[in-house]
Amino acid sequence: MNLFFMEEKLEKRIQEIKEYRYRDVRGIEEFLVKEGEGEIPNPAVPESFEDFTRQKVGMYWSGWDRYLWLHADVVFPEEWRGRRILGLFDFGNTGGGNNSGFESMLYVNGHPYQGVDQNHQEVFFGEEVLGKEQSLTFRLWSGMEGGGVPAAQEHKIRRADIAWLDEKTDDLYYLADMILQTVKGMAEEQPWKLDLRKALNDAFLKIDWSKPGSDAFYESVHCADDCLNQAVDAMDKKEMVTVDCVGHTHIDMAWLWRLKHTREKASRSFSTVLRLMEMYGEYIFLQTQPQIYEYIKKDFPEIYEEIKKRVKEGRWETDGAMWVEADCNLPSGESLTRQILVGTRFFKEEFDQDTEFLWLPDVFGYSWALPQILKKSGIDVFMTTKISWNEFNRMPHDTFYWTGMDGSKVLTHFVTTPDADANIGPWFYTYNGMLTPYTVKGVWNGYNDKQLTKELLISYGYGDGGGGVNREALEHRRKMDKIPGLPNVKTKTARDYFRTLKENVENTMEYVHTWDGELYLEFHRGTYTSHAYNKKMNRKLEFLYREAEWLTAMAAIAQGNLGKASQEKLTEGWKIILRNQFHDIIPGSAILPVYEDSKVEYAEAAGIAEAVERDACAVLFHPAGDSWTILNNGTWTRTETVPVQETRTGVFKDCRGNVLKTQKASGCTYVEVPEVPPMGGIAIHFEEMPDAEEKESPFIIEGTHIETPFYSVDLNECGQIARLYDKESEREVLAAGERGNVLMMFEDKPCEFDAWNIDIFYQEKAREIEDLVSMEVAEQGALRAVIRMKWTYMDSTIWQDLVLYSNDRRIDFVTKVDYQEQHQLMKASFPVNIRAVEATYDIQYGNVKRPNHWNTSWDMAKFETVAHRFADLSQRDYGVSILNDCKYGHDIKENRMRITLLKSGTNPDYKQDQGIHEFTYSLYPHKGDFVEGETAKEAYSLNQPLKAVEGIGSEESFAFLAFDKDSVELDAVKRSEDGTALVVRFHEYTGSSTKVKLTPGFTYRSFTECDLMERPMGEPSEEKEIVMDVTPYEIKTLLFYVD
Fold first, then answer.
1. For a designed S-S bond to 142, which of 20, 66, 401, 829 qualifies (C-beta 3.0 to 4.6 A apart)?
2. Residue ranges per domain, the chain?
């Protein structure tokens, strides 16, 4: 027991000297105030203030997304020369989590100078301001409510002063504060505790408090500062552990604010960084996300030029790889590649900086494809923090090799900085670190691989609206570096830190662990489903851009000039797609205005690609009467039913004169087109024949019983599948006594993070949608039969077409929902007649197997998982796949397969997913496993059906590219970013080693393999027969130099 309350006394004295750091304080008594305009990130600073009103300091102001100009002309006294001059401004509350409240930008004489917010109330000025009138103009932003129903934010202009800083008092304050925090965190038996506490007490006993603020008072404070520094320096600190600190501000592209607000947040934070760099020569700052830099370049060119100077000095670090810190569950493999391609090219072109690491501290899971993507992008290190938020299981290692599905390995490091709130939990680590004795010790205490390195990394600074690093943090680092009992606390770039870590790991004699599999985040599972429209548009645009790049490249080659391909336009469109893959936009965890903005952006991106496609088709195909070209942008030869915009009666023939099967429908005719070449097309022709008859329907429909060429189907009175019998395999598809396509609603009220989370207890309250309003036969023809059904559920309505085909085993559920529920989770359930202990899920550039049981806590944690185009449950001889055209959430437990369709939380978006949704999911029973059953092909066809384009080309049947193996899938055919070559990228998706023969349908001079960044990996070859060895899940990229 401390009978003399020494620590309590010292804490009180330290806080008392805090305000005495500021001397000769002079108030700015009033401001000229005017309403501001909010749609322009950097509006012109008012030059005339005649229409401003006068307001005294102490005024209250409020608003929701409101902007306010404050202006004052100030003269800094000439007698302050030789002092450190500053302003002190307190205009509002930045808000909990620094993510939703007040922020402002200070303009000095019309130029952006520094951000001012709750964490940055000091603004330092150079001596050039002395003796002359200075124009101080603040652009204040009220902030927003931080999610939920919009609500005005209340603020007060509490303080506006100018002063000069007493540097020794300031030094004493920060040193004493850090020593006291260190002492309080030490056990009584630790040797430095008594010495530090005595030194601190001895120093403060020298302060004369009889007349605070007097010259005598400051003399005593300066003496105390000298005394304390001398005592600490004499303690001869020797520590083996070093904490490397890099300044950072984690700015979400959009979350509880819109994209336009991010542009402003970045300008404020970056200007503050630049001011602090003028004061602290050791300050190093890292900022990722090239998208933010592109915004700054456009909006704030003055700030951008200053940043470029600091980058050249090596003090401002540009790295992190991706265009934005993207979600890694939902974007396709090609999207993740483009994130890095576009991002790294920007850093190189704008700053002449290479990229060495992927920085994703805050994303909600990490695809098993990432290690290979990184290695083939020239990146060897991956860093994250969010994995520490796992609900059930702590990752066993913090520094290890992560092995991807193809066997690629990248060094992976988890930053273990504890949150400043010590009560938040032992696993919760942060990327918005505070520099305090608790955190610099905690980063070491929590680290699991102490045998590998004694040097750890902290990224520190307030994120989002918090403005980044402040002067307090920089002073804390300086002070802690000299205090015994704490690690050495140094500054270092993240790049240099990772280089050192990589060297240590490569040279250690200790065992370095490996994690072979995905890094599944046991949290935020609802982000696979929330805000369905964004997920749908992302999927559609990924496929649209794949097709547009192929068509424009093909058109350019047809004109003899690859440079004519519209890749620049498409790359600008890609930036829109990539931007909206940010880890709080596409996951569905942002406020309503963000999704209003993204809807506009998606339309813009679609317009760009559609225009490029129209231009390309105008080159490739010429009008030819009643003729169409059926385009196949898939990797395989395909036979499918294609809707053609023709309603007259007649016959369709292929280019060989064969009459094709057809079925007339409302507004079109369905045509079965056989053997459409891969990455190519085939012409079909229509002949009007009033007496032509369609072939007899192979479907027999008697009440709720349906016979198709593949199945016997029975529906029950609720519209559910009561029986599904596979005629070819002579077996029941559904488990005995079970029903398929059961639409279900679950109460979805997670304990926290409404839009983000699905909690494991959601299954305790479930209802089936059974109120079938109508069921009718909508189509029954030669090619397909459609059963149309309608259900109601509370305030919602569901319409669904059950589509069965004569030439395809796939069963489609074409669905439209008017969704008016809240806190409800909608799923479709299929209990199937399969015995297996793992399921296969489609992911980027391949697939992953996950257990469908809860044997361990690791298995149980995956009660909701992500898949892209399909999820499959197979035993050796038979399997069932669920396909989809825009859904991602799935849960497969034992033999019950469910796909998650809609989730309707109310925070941050209080209207989340209310309204109309249209989507398709499919059931696909098949022989063998998903490879033998060709599930991937069916899933591709669902997402990218054959397309009819008016006109025909120079050849009525053509293949631009063909492979001799079905085990590879083509990902991209595009003009290279530098315009010199044609890029062809494909991957192996079955997990097999094979030889692949590639046959180009175009003329080329030579080709070479390249990495994902389109950099050649060898000398060009002029071989005309291209045969390549491909290993399981390997991504291959080739450059073709065409004539």
1. 66
2. 21-165, 169-233, 247-508, 527-620, 624-632+641-693+946-957, 741-928, 960-1043
